[in-house]
Amino acid sequence: MSPADVPLWAALPAALLLVCGGLLTVVGSLGLLRLDAFYARIHAPTMGSTLGAGCILLASMLTSSAIAGRPVIHELLITVFILITSPVTAMLLMRAAIFRSKD
Amino acid sequence: MNAILPWSVHFALACFALAMVFALIRLLRGPAAQDRVLAFDTLYINGMLTILMLGIGTGSAVYFDIALLIALFGFVGSSALAKFLLRGEVIEP
Lengths: 103, 93
Known about the structure:
Shape of chain B: elongated
Shape of chain A: elongated
Helix content of chain A: over 70%
Distance between the termini of chain B: 61 Å
Largest interface: A-B, 56 and 55 residues
Number of helices of chain A: 4
CATH architecture of chain B: Orthogonal Bundle
Oligomer: heterodimer
Strand content of chain B: under 5%
Number of strands of chain A: 0
Largest sheet of chain A: none
Order of helices and strands of chain B: HHH
Structural class of chain A: mainly alpha
CATH topology of chain B: Helix Hairpins
Radius of gyration of chain B: 16 Å
Radius of gyration of chain A: 17 Å
Structural class of chain B: mainly alpha
Strand content of chain A: under 5%
Number of strands of chain B: 0
Largest sheet of chain B: none
């Protein structure tokens, strides 16, 4: 049941996806720290919250399917939820920033 | 058996810890309120991914529910904060 027992055909792409997701997320947060205007900063974390989260959730699906021996797809729930809610939050925040910079 | 998956889990955990530190610095330093809300948004998504990473690392299914709850309440919190910045109140009469 531990991750060391996952067979190699699932462990190799899962490891690749985990490394890619971690690097994408850290680059997105570095952009949040380093960029100099709010309108530039709102772009950076979307990389971590869409592509990074997608990579991690795909890797989680892969490993739990390989451990259970059958397709386990309940991580799709988090993926769909993040994909729906992240643009809503970004749009509300951008409207708030435009409204607050007006006066 | 093969040590590639635990190694990559630890690498991704280190990446998420670094990303949470970056978001926390922006949360403490942000010049305007919308910067702080954006940093909070990034922070809860990174925390949710960290919980999922612990779920992969231990092979337990409990962490999935925690990650789903963090995603749900984080969305509620950050959209309520953005609505408050936009209109001055969250629930309008």
